[in-house]
Amino acid sequence: MPQQLFYLNDDPSWFPDPNGALDDPSGLLAIGGDLTSERVHQAYLNGVFPWYSDDEPIMWWSPDPRAIFYPEQIKVNKSLRKFLKKCQYSVSINTDFKRVMEHCAKPRPNSEGTWIMPEMIDCYSQLHREGHAHSIEIWQIDENGKDLIGGLYGVLVGNCFCGESMFSKQKNASKLALICLAELLKTSEGSFIDCQLPNPYLMSMGAKLISREVYLSKLLSAKIKSTQDSLFSPRFIQWQTILKHNDNG
Is the CB of residue 152 less than 8 Å from the CB of residue 145? Predict the structure, then answer.
């Protein structure tokens, strides 16, 4: 279909067809609008997400190809498995969503800045309160107290978890968060994790590339399904049992 850059109007429910996204820059679909939770949630329902930098207008993207994880295909290699069998990390779900986002927003080595602006934190925190956005937290708990050392967050669309970002302050903390997310989603047939864009880290953990057309078809199916109501209820979990069921060594 013909390509053009769309400008969002005042209707938070309207998004253009993602198949019209530009080839250059790859995946850019629209600009403008706002970061209300209603508009951002509608974006995810349409296979679109916001991504921009400071001093730029809000930009909306639908890349091609798309990186995704199938929960049953997350890779846990021998060295990671060995580490996880010995480590004493604790894992919780939806107990500190905003702080996970704040950690994800911190500058990283060899990075020019962050795309997780304060307005993004406010918006996704509202999505979290509305039950659309979720987090997994990794903790180090000892005699000195409780330290948040890793985690991830994203938006749930049916049984597709649209991952946004993750962070790690200690070895393999973000990998454990991803493994736990995959294990949770295994209980919902046909579920998958949307990683948006590929990178070496994700690919090493088993991410696959699919076309935008295939992604949108999978998303359409995901929207009519749902996960168990209790799946993302706030709680600590016994993650050690995950290793007994994950054979992708």
Answer: no
Report the C-alpha gap between 79 and 82 in whole angstroms: 5
DSSP, residue by residue, 149-161? EEEEEEEEETTEE
pTM: 0.94
Q: Is 160 left (phi over 0), alpha (psi -120 to 50) or beta?
A: beta
What does the angle CA 231 – CA 232 – CA 237 come to, to the nearest 5 degrees?
A: 80
How does pLDDT run across 197-206, given as a tens digit for each residue? 999 999 999 9
For 137-194, what is each residue's pLDDT tens digit? 999 998 888 999 999 999 999 999 999 999 999 999 999 999 999 999 998 999 999 9
Query: Which domains, from first to last, does the chain contain?
Result: 6-63 (3.30.70.3550), 67-245 (3.40.630.70)
Q: List phi, psi (to 5°) of 61.
A: -130, 150
From 5, 36, 30, 37, select the one nearest 15 (Cα to Cα). 30
